[in-house]
Write a structure and sequence with these properties.
Number of strands: 19
Strand order of the largest sheet: 7-6-15-16-17-14-18
Number of helices: 15
Strand content: 15-25%
Structural class: alpha/beta
Largest sheet: 7 strands, mixed
Distance between the termini: 7 Å
Length: 486
Amino acid sequence: MKKNIAIIGSGFSALSASCYLAQAGHQVTLYEKNETIGGRARQLKRDGFTFDIGPTWYWMPDVFERFFADFNKKPSDYYSLEKLSPAYQVYFGIHDFVTISDNLESICDTFESIEPGSAQELRKFMAEAKSNYDIAIKDLVYNPGVSPMELITLETAKKVGQFFSNIRRDVRKRFKHTKLIQILEFPVLFLGAKPSDTPSFYSFMNYADFGLGTWHPKNGMYSVILAMESLAKSLGVTIQTSANVSKIEVADKKATGLVVNGAFISADVVLSGADYHHSETLLDENNRGYSEKFWSKQTFAPSSLLFYVGIDKKVANVEHHSLFFDVDFDAHAHSIYDDPKWPENPLFYASFPSKTDENSAPAGKEAAIFLIPLAPGLEDTEVLRETYFEKILTRLELLTGQELKNNIIFKNSFCVTDFITEYNSYKGNAYGLANTLLQTAFLRPKLKSKKVQNLYFTGQLTVPGPGVPPALISGKLVAELIEKNC
């Protein structure tokens, strides 16, 4: 039966759900509070420079292909992709870096040059990671998280032990060199938790890294948002921007619509792609499925301090994606998860999209994005932002052997308070709810409200978890659940 469906937000998961629901014949309207669509994946344009505000890594291309194939389309119908070669580089000291190639055999050679015997171990590790990836994509992540039985298959039964060990332990059993350990532990940071808190099964992220490679969509990740917008509109979805939702209306334990910019809009089904915690605050307290105490006890992925910087010359000795691990990895992780505070010496990530994409910056100039992972809920001031920009830029100059501070045309920053203001993000987290053992699959907040009929949720705080590919999957899962219950 055709339903009138109101969706809060316009990020990856909301756009994904809107496409599936419209394809099923429903009347779908998205309400986005900001002036532009994309949720956390919006775009910044300034002085001829273009930046992705949110995600900058395009991993797991097969998930994007599967999404568009569901509508008889291909990513190439909307945007062009380039496999990055090299994929990225990791700095460990002054002019001391490891370059990660775009193919596994070259990466094995790199590992062997650092730690003799490690190439053979890496091939074994990657074979297991690929097996886990195949199981995750085929058997697990496309399940709606309603039952523990979803985790029990013939294949997962063989790997049950991997849910009770962790990435840190497994990596360190095989590899001894600190550089290799940190490179292999890096991908699980996309899941929002420390390697020591991430089940071994999630080594499938290492296959996403070394096996499938790192890609760049021309004109940035926002090209994917624009592709999904185009697809959604072609299916009949209506998108309203500057449309702030202040209330989810409920009558007789059924969602009846939304209050948008002060006016009531009726709906047969309400789906929120906004922050899950915030979405529940749009309900009267007796209709909320999770208490404030529940949210306070969850392990959230980090927040971030981000800088978007225009530079009046090309930056030397860096790649499109560059990681700076020249300080204590564990000390920074401790300041995020164990003793929340601003890290004394932060790890940081830098993206220079203009290394690949000429549309990112004017000729002869460089677009730079810097990211420092932080504990959510920290104090956030302009003084702190400036202090940390000075720290990372000083290190960048030292590590890469060049002067840059006098070449900065402008910089914009984005941090904890912005995540709260722009996205209603719980404590200003950047990536959602971490994928720890007790926050996996059916143990995550549910796609369907436990208390209100016709009310659903999607995105990084529910299944399958944080990241862009999981967001696409989350939209599909919730659309299927709505169809099942219509």
